């Protein structure tokens, strides 16, 4: 059989180099996208944890502040007033007499690892905010004109890796149910 040539089929070196380069680009792009998705998910979870952890804190404080009653001159609150403010080295301190007649103080205190929201009620005290959340700043604004209103603002973040601390500033206003 004269005239029949057998060519060997295969890839040239240039084709192999180009295909390996394209494969590497696709793999690197995919891993970078995956990393970005994982980091975004971690940030969202940190933010959700801060919000959920502070939800209980706001429920407890809102109910108690709303139900505060006019002071008889006890609890560091002048007679006839509902709320009184002072400050410590970490922020504002709110004083009032609760529905049950107990003296209550809301303040920011250190537990050694972080700053947490502390309630002192009837001589007993305890932390209300969780240990995994640190509160950087706590401020109260008392508006006694008309129906007494407390505006509470705080700056908090989750403890842990700096990339996933999810710092948040939260503010709420609570009106007293006590009418003049």
Explain what the structure shows.
By secondary structure, the protein is α+β, with helices and mostly antiparallel strands. It has 1 helix and 8 strands, in the order αββββββββ. It has one helix at residues 13-66, and strands spanning 83-88, 91-97, 103-110, 115-121, 124-127, 133-143, 149-158, 168-175. It has a 5-stranded antiparallel β-sheet with strand order 1-2-3-4-5, with no helix packed on it. A hairpin with a 2-residue loop joins β1 (83-88) and β2. It is rod-shaped, with a radius of gyration of 30 Å. The chain starts with 12 loop residues before the first helix and ends in a 5-residue tail after the last strand.
Key traits:
rod-shaped, single chain, five-stranded antiparallel sheet, 180 residues, three-stranded antiparallel sheet, 1 helix, 8 strands, alpha+beta
Oligomeric state of shown chains: single chain
Secondary-structure element pattern, one letter each: HEEEEEEEE
As a percent range, the share of helical residues equals 25-40%
Assign the structural class, choosing from mainly alpha, mainly beta, alpha/beta, alpha+beta, or little secondary structure: alpha+beta
Number of helices: 1
Computed Rg: 30 Å
- Give the biggest sheet: 5 strands, antiparallel
Strand order of the largest sheet: 1-2-3-4-5
User: Stretches where pLDDT falls below 50 for ≥5 residues?
Assistant: none
Mean pLDDT: 85
